[in-house]
Amino acid sequence: MPSASRSILINRPVSEVFTFFADAENDTHWRTGVKEIKREGELGVGVRYRQRVSGSGGRTIAADTEVTAYEPNRHVAFRVTAGPVRPSGDYTFEPSGNGTKVTFTLGVELSGLKKFFMSKAVQKTMNAEVAGLDRAKTVLESRD
Length: 144
Known about the structure:
It contains three helices and eight strands; from the N terminus they run βαβββββββαα. It is an alpha+beta fold. Strands 1, 2, 3, 4, 5, 6, 7 and 8 form an eight-stranded antiparallel beta sheet that branches.
């Protein structure tokens, strides 16, 4: 099962960091593969995002998501509902000194031919996604 997890300390208050990550429309600021994303509804459990991301061969693919958990200033989880691979993801937020510890986790079950042909590529993509926390840190810490 491909999976990836990473934690990072962002020197901003929990409320600010949570607000940034909880609204996936901010993903274009730090996730390089997101080409467009649009929220459909109010923030909270059940909200959906229509998302287009970079795919193989330079094409753009659907990767719509749905929020499955939403605890202000503590936790957001989602699952991908469209696209060839449909991982689940999770963010947790903890106060740490004058900042916020963010942990981002992704995982997906692959079976059959997808498992055989796609596991390595999916793992590589997941590793890149959680590594993107460095860009999110830069974006958040550069705000006035």
